[in-house]
Amino acid sequence: MDKIKKNIINLGIQRGKLKSLFPSSTVTISKNVLTWKHNLQPSPLSEKYKIKLIYRLGKSPNVYVLSPVLRKRKKEDDFNHLYSEDKQWLCLYYKRAREWDTSMLLADILVPWISEWLLHYEIWSVTGKWNGGGIQHDMDIN
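The line above is the sequence of Type II CBASS E2 protein domain-containing protein; the predicted structure tokens follow.
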């Protein structure tokens, strides 16, 4: 079966869309890597989260919460939806399922996923139940 080749949206277009929707954000491009920093507030009652998105052209983007620190409710709780608790690296989607691809705009697809993830985190931190879906997976994130 032949694979359908998807277009890769260039970093200039990605940067432009991020800046147009989030004018107070910081976007830099260096050596085919886009870095976006912004404060997101998933709901009017939510905290503001400082987010860092790193996207190497043609690869899966990585998203980190810079502040505040995401915490477990209890020490024994599991952070199933983080790739790394130390790095505060969010698991937004299952990379092997290719739910995100290089033909998608970060601002239109990934940023809403980040906000949704943060909202589910806030609900989980109160109730102990993760309502954001997802599947159990290993830490092989390539």
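Note on the example: The domain at 11-127 is CATH 3.10.110 (Ubiquitin Conjugating Enzyme). The first helix runs from residue 11 to 21.
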